[in-house]
Design brief:
This protein is mainly alpha-helical. About 80% of the residues lie in helices and about 0% in strands.
Length: about 280
Amino acid sequence: MARASHNERENRAGAFFLATLLLWLVSVLFEIAFNDRRELLSILAGCCFYQAANWVVRRRVSRDPLFVNTAVSLLHSTVTSASVVFILLNLWSRDGYKDMLEHSQLVGATWPWAYKALCFSCGYFAYDQWDMLQYRLYSGWIPSILVHHLILLICFTLALYRNVTINYLILTLICEIHSIFLHMRKVRRMAGIRDAKSVVVKIEWVLNWVSFFVARLAAHVFITAKLIIDASKFEKGIELPLALFGMAGMNFLNIGLGIDLFSAFKREMWTSKSNCRHE
C-alpha cells in the first residue's frame, strides 16, 4: 500500500514536470512564430542535436536508458564547457579582462557567441527533462534533477526573451566543467571500472573534487555575491529577483550534490577496503 502511494506521488510529480515542459515548448514556439524571434531557433537546434545523439548512442552503443542519458549528458557538459572557455578566452584576447565583470557587461551586454551558446544549452535541458520523464530516470516526490532543470529553463528562457543577464548565465555554465567528471564517473562505473585503488579512479576523484569546489561551488557563490553587491545597480523589474531566486536554488542544489558526492566517495573507498580485506 505504501509502495503504491509512493508510485502515485512520483506519477504526479512526473505529470507536473511534463506539463511545465509542454508549456515551455509552446512559449518558445510562440515567440519564434508570432514574435519573429528567429534567434531562438538555436534552442530547437540544441533539442534536436542532443536527441539525435541519444538515438546514435542507443543504436550503436547501448539501449540502457540510464547509460544513454549519461552519455549524452557527458557530451553536453563537454560541448558547453568548451563553448564557455572559448567565449571567455575570445573576450579576454579581444578586450582584456578589466571590464569583463562590470555590471553593465554582465547584465546589458552580450559577449560574442554567448546568446547562441545559451540557446543551445537551453535546448539540452529541455531534451534531458523529456528523456528523464520518458524513461522515468528520476526518483522521489520532488525529484531534485527535475527541479534543477525547471529552474534553469525558466531563468535561461526569460533571459533569452528579454536579452538580459546573458553573460551572467554564461558564467553559471562554468559548472559544466565539474559535470564532465560527474558523468565520467557514472560511465566508468557502468563500464565496470570500480577499483578505487586504480590510478584512473584516483585521478578522476581528484579532478571531481577540485572542479566541484572551483568550477561549481566557488563560481556560483561568487555570482551570488556579485548579484547582491550590485543589487542597487539593477533597474526595477524581474531581472534581480529572478537571478537571486535562480542562484539560491542552484546553491541549495550544490550543497545537496556535495553531500551526495561525499557519500559516494566514502562508499567507493569503503567498498575497496572491504574487497582488500576479503582478498
